[in-house]
Fold this sequence. Notes:
mainly alpha
Amino acid sequence: TRGTEGAGGGGGGGVCPVVSVMTEGPIYNRYIEQYSEVDALAEVLRQTERHLEEQHQLTTSADQRAVAFASVLMVVIGILLSNDGAASVDASKPFVIIGFLAAIGLAFYSAKPTRIYGSGANSASLNNHVGERREGYLVTTLIERNDRNIAHNDTVLKASALLFRLGLGTGLASTLILFLDWVDVISQIQKWG
């Protein structure tokens, strides 16, 4: 059905305009006839800006996770190097420590400062869209710039994620070596015991 009116009836005086929509089927299949190209471009711009903000949040979270992981591994190395920690696993200790150091390096490198682009711009970069009837291109130019920034940020995020996964895998492999050596020591103690 078509022809539903906004709240307050349709009379004028700043009341909601008549908006025709198709109401059959799911909500995502509805067509809004009064939705203009300007409205659509404004929404596209908003979505690209939102995506860039989410990328910033993701970058911050990933960096915090990498630094926390590296910090935990540093504590484990400290325990292994102390006289109290895992003295019975001397055979694997150098390999485990080297593995943990490699994992720490990869984790820290994944959290290194990198250029992540946002959605804002300084006025000087937008001055060429003022005057000579170029204002109409401003929104589409911002959308295009945001799309380039999103693609750049995705590349940076994927590279950092790969480094962190390598560090995580190295740390887990080192932990597995330590665990297997510890299990071997326990089984030998039980044989002698």
